[in-house]
């Protein structure tokens, strides 16, 4: 019983790690621009599909992965330049921006279907070999890459925001956009780069998870929805919250699936979301939400 | 000011009528052709199923015409795409029924077949479908008069796999792993009832969504129930993930799956862990029967590729219909055709030996299902 | 120049008359499409009331269609009710669910409201999938069709029925938005604090509009169930909710005429794209038309945020 529970926790850590990456992308964009980017999950799909199709054409997996991350980043850049910036330039706000990112999500998924169709694509694991035993539970070697990606991304984000000048400027701009612009801080450039970074992070997530789950045409929707439950759970304004939210969600899914019923694995995340919105809309680590 | 809006709405509807809704344009007939309609899932999520079926029907059409057509008339197979959606399938069936086709081949999936059969049963058109769910023709209210199935039904598959596990692998405790789609749900019910009939205990039964990326809870429960065999019933990409995770958790028993797991994706994703996984096939590509060899060479000549295992179902459906209308001497009336089919003599198709009766609209026996094992690809082993 | 409530009613019935005549002349396949457009248009009218007039967001409307469809299916299949009663029950069922959910969702604004409706829509869909009483993933089949006396509705009758409901729906919505109630709705979308300052109870109004939009969706679901005679959870997922948003925005959020127009455009475009694109790009599969629909949605929001109808008429306050 305890052994099974520990195995659920391990499985939850792996899926939670991807949720955390997707959530980080959401939080990054939300913090810098105030927009909830419904298309975030599709960058995962783009990363996974690109890496898998390049690798099956003969490219070594790490190279394919690197290019896939760049492709995802480009998709993020285009998302901002073709959709967000023109809309905001014309004064779109609030509800309209929600619809725009929804359109972006739908469009990117459709683009994926045009390019890759509905067949799943596979990617070889970066480290092959037998599973690794941890206190009686097992994980596959590829899972270490997934967890490693998390460590890398969150460490980089921490360093950027807390230890670099640019990061501090971004934090200032987020805290008071009006004052920041009088200092000549380029808000639109920050917005652009937040999209690029969020997409690259999502793409990285897709590349490391593809060897475990295959690259499928609907993985963007699955990981996107889970990722933003994690983001809201952790607190939309908190990057550490994304990490916490991701792992909490992943583990909650597996444990409830194991202990209650596997059928509810899908629903538990959204029940959690509803509870969070009802009881603590700022999330676990966020500060109280300002009312519009 | 409201009129422009109304006009716009009407104009949009009218314009969409002017553009093709996905129908294939029939070629100009020579003589009075007998038209067979086909409603397949060629695009949509199940394209890997529908495309080989379409390919098989196209060469079947040529083959039938090369052998004198049907009762002296050329045959014409009109192939339509339901995109994997039941509502589209129903509309297409209504369209075909309005054109008074002689018979319909379709659908690819259970929901699309159900939708089409709602139309064909009312319009009295013989329909042959290509998925293993026999509950479509074998309903609680009796056998559906005009509906036939050219795929070995779930029970035949389950029997083959279960008997193999019991006799050759000496398994005594089966865990069923099925997806939540109708294919998995109905398949698992059949596995459980056949296992009971064959005297093999089913110690666990788990389900997973078709887009699952991890089946840890399901496998842990199967292991806790001390299963010595896993029976996987799904056509989704979860199958290889399941096999990999089972091996990771140290499962050493036998793993078998329905023919739905046979795919290139399975081999690629499962990797080494997929070796030794059992399934079943209908087409024996290494030692084909004479009919299979003929089908294979025609398929290879036309498409320069191996046919998918289930392409044979479409080929057989077309030939069986041709045979039936030949037998009724060109009478395409649904009652006449189905009467002929129900009293037919055995016919050796590519899938197996068919003999429909009033009570059996699948007409196949255990010979239609052959055990296979994966060792780089899935190959027939007996 | 403000349009009178009567103009919506008249226009609606003109539209209905056009459809009722056209179905005798067009091929059955297109009659089926027209029925679907009508069903979707009905949902979109309700959605426009909630999103366009009251200024809220719903990303889960497909779930209400599903509740209506399942309610009708359960009553007509398991209890042998008449499909007409099932239709009405579908609307009521969706209304009840919406009322209960409104206590959760409507306290939130914009972003969080969008997320809440999204989440609730998915939870409802998971319930359809997991609850054996409503058939689980296999859904319901053999749902009885509408009938009047001995005459069972055929394709044409379904098309006429769905557009009759659209006409009635337009008439009712038209009367609503032209009344004081409608002005209150618009006041809320402009700002709840401002609305409160003139004595409008924003929460109550939002709740009423939410429930009303659910009634439209539930009725549409009831028609859908008896028309298709088969429903399963895959018909009512998040992607359909997104489609409804598309229909709303393309037609024009704050426009009732935009609803049938948006529905017609999305359905027609889907058909055309599904036929044409695979010829040019053979690798395209599945619901790839969403690329174009998404691009159109973005383009509309950037260049024509008030939707198509606003371009050609229906001046808004």
* H/I helix tally of chain B: 12
> Strand tally of chain A, please?
2
Given helix and strand content, the structural type of chain B is: alpha/beta
Pattern of helices and strands of chain B: HEHEHEHEEEEHEHEHEHEHEHHHEEEE
- Give the C-alpha Rg of chain A: 19 Å
Can you give me a brief rundown of this structure?
Chain A has 292 residues and is mainly α. Chain A has eleven helices and two strands. A two-stranded antiparallel sheet of chain C has the order 1-4. A two-stranded antiparallel ribbon of chain C has the order 2-3.
Report on the structure:
The complex is a heterotrimer of chains A (292), B (382) and C (317). Chain A has helices at 2-33, 40-56, 61-89, 95-116, 141-163, 165-175, 177-182, 187-213, 219-234, 239-259, 265-279; strands at residues 132-134, 137-139. The mean pLDDT of chain A is 88. Chain A contains eleven helices and two strands. Chain B is an alpha/beta fold. Helix content of chain B is 42%, strand content 18%. Chain B has twelve helices and 16 strands. Chain B has helices at residues 2-18, 47-66, 86-98, 110-123, 154-167, 182-198, 216-224, 238-248, 264-270, 290-303, 311-327, 334-342; strands at 34-40, 75-81, 103-106, 126-129, 138-139, 142-143, 147-149, 174-179, 202-208, 229-233, 254-257, 278-281, 347-348, 353-354, 370-374, 378-380. A five-stranded parallel β-sheet of chain B has the order 2-1-3-4-7, sandwiched between helices. Chain B has a four-stranded parallel β-sheet with strand order 9-8-10-11, with helices on both faces. A three-stranded antiparallel β-sheet of chain B has the order 12-15-16. In chain B, strand 5 and strand 6 (142-143) form a beta hairpin. In chain B, helix 3 (86-98) runs parallel beside helix 4 (110-123), helix 8 (238-248) packs parallel to helix 9 and helix 11 crosses helix 12 (334-342). Chain B starts with a helix and ends with a strand. Chain C is globular. Chain C is mainly α and 317 residues long. The interface between B and C is large, with 41 and 51 residues.
